[in-house]
Fold this sequence. Notes:
Blueprint: E1 11-15, E2 20-24, H1 29-36, E3 41-42, H2 54-59, H3 67-70, E4 77-83, E5 89-92, H4 98-104, E6 113-120, E7 122-123, E8 128-131, E9 137-140
Antiparallel strand pairs: 1-2, 2-6, 3-7, 4-5, 4-6, 8-9
This protein binds flavin-adenine dinucleotide.
Amino acid sequence: MVLDGPANSGIVDIDLPGARVTAKAGTSLHELMERLVPLGLFVPVTPGTRMVTVGGAIGADIHGKNHHQAGSWCAHLESIRLLDGSGDVRVVSQTHEPEVFWATAGGMGLTGVVLDATIQMKPVTSSRLMWTPTGRPTSTK
Ligand SMILES: Cc1cc2nc3c(=O)[nH]c(=O)nc-3n(C[C@H](O)[C@H](O)[C@H](O)COP(=O)(O)OP(=O)(O)OC[C@H]3O[C@@H](n4cnc5c(N)ncnc54)[C@H](O)[C@@H]3O)c2cc1C
């Protein structure tokens, strides 16, 4: 069977105070940033292209330029909704069925189809960056 990943795209829920977003697996990081940066939320990990889907980011557990500080994509997931090989939908997280969660993180789709995921985003005050005296970038108005 071939699945059209990007056809399953869109933001399902935004929890602004908690800086959490639930997005369908076919949603690209580009779509997340376009919609969420104006609301003050940025993706926690940014790879060399924003044309990556949430499902692909999980499948490869992608890294960004902040890898040494933030770790990879799946470290920032609150939960994944996964359609497994038995046809069951499981909600897995770092604390609930962690072995399935970590097998899915970087698992290249071998544990099933990611339907959607809840992502802990990074609060920002603007889309601009300012270099601080420590050399670490911070967002600025
Ligand atoms: C220009 C460029 C720059 C890049 N820079 C970086 C970088 O800086 N850091 C980095 O880590 N990577 C980088 N990559 C690699 C890219 O992030 C990964 O290849 C990523 O997995 C691609 O995501 P995709 O949405 O295109 O998924 P696909 O290529 O379609 O799939 C990738 C894997 O995820 C699985 N998958 C996709 N969707 C689902 C789903 N819904 N459920 C289950 N499994 C699924 C697929 O089966 C496949 O095994 C770069 C790629 C390019 C082209």
